[in-house]
Amino acid sequence: MYRASDSPHRSERSARSVARFFRAFLTVATLLAAMLLTASCQSGSAKPFELVYSLEKETSATDGTPGQPAPSGGTEKPYKIAFVPKGTELNDYFAYAAEGAREAGRNLGVDVIVAGSESADADLQIASVKKLIADKVDLIAISANDPVKLVPVLRDAAGQGIKVITWDADTEPEGRAFFVNMVDPEVLGRHLLDTLALAVGEKGNYAIMTGSFSAANLNEWLKWIHVQQKEYYPDLHLVATVATDDVKEKAYEVAKRLLADYPALDGILGNSSVGPPGAAQAVREAGKSGQVKVVGLSNPNLMRPFLHDGSAQISTLWSPKKLGYLTVVLASEYLDGKLPTDGEEVEGVGNIRVKGDMVIMGEPLDFTPDNVDQYDF
């Protein structure tokens, strides 16, 4: 027991020990403050999200393999996730998306089933969903062919304990938990019209080739295309909007009819992946390369030859493979009880944005003759 009558040397030693303690404490506190200040400065200057345009940037220019997140779920039996495109045999866009979805499934240790009808048909898609309900999948991730018609069957799925999300093309909100979108629809629609205006010199007659008049995402983009024209390009004149049903052969035939019906046509804008290559092929064969400008949404592998020979001017897209990958990652997290959060970093994808119940993967990327060879999807 310590007593005041004990040696004064003990008090001196105690005082020195206390002093040494406080000096050490101050040193550590100073270092921690510096570290916190550095982290704060870095986070304050960061953008709200970072867009990585193509999977190829993380690995090679050919396979586009994202990093591998840790396996999800922690259950004895792997989750069964149904990945439903508008059509399983529709076009390369959905094939690349399915490839990304399967890759995410392998990385996460979940069972991904690519299901649905071959063509883009809402009734056939409804039949596919009914089969998935009977198969008792854990989650359905669907690119909807019709935003309204699919809601009842998706609500049936939810009523039987199957979680439902949408990707690429949305339904009405009551049909799903959240929507995984590629880009902000306003940004994309306005940007597409900007690319056309740039190509034709902000004046002239143009036509739009859309995939389907019932697809919610395409209609939303069309809305913003029209808004952008009205606000900024009074000398552009829309002469026709036609549908391709997302079939490449039909896109080519539709483009040929446009060229025949509107000989004074200055530009064609396609807002689904088969439109721009179909239009470019028709323009090339009509001997109007460079005379009728072609822009719109399509992947670089389809557009490369047309961009290089001048029968198309600009192609715009994102990585569909990355979209499929992101969808399955978020689906797996949702099955674990986690909803997407704004600014969340998804390995192999980047930082996502969340606006209400919509996830936004990133921003559009333009492909031109100068950069198209840098991409392989």
From TrEMBL:
CDD domains: PBP1_LsrB_Quorum_Sensing-like. It is found in: Cell envelope. Pfam families: Peripla_BP_4. Residues 81-338 form the Periplasmic binding protein domain. SUPFAM superfamilies: Periplasmic binding protein-like I. This is Autoinducer 2 ABC transporter substrate-binding protein. The lineage of its organism: Bacteria, Bacillati, Bacillota, Bacilli, Bacillales.
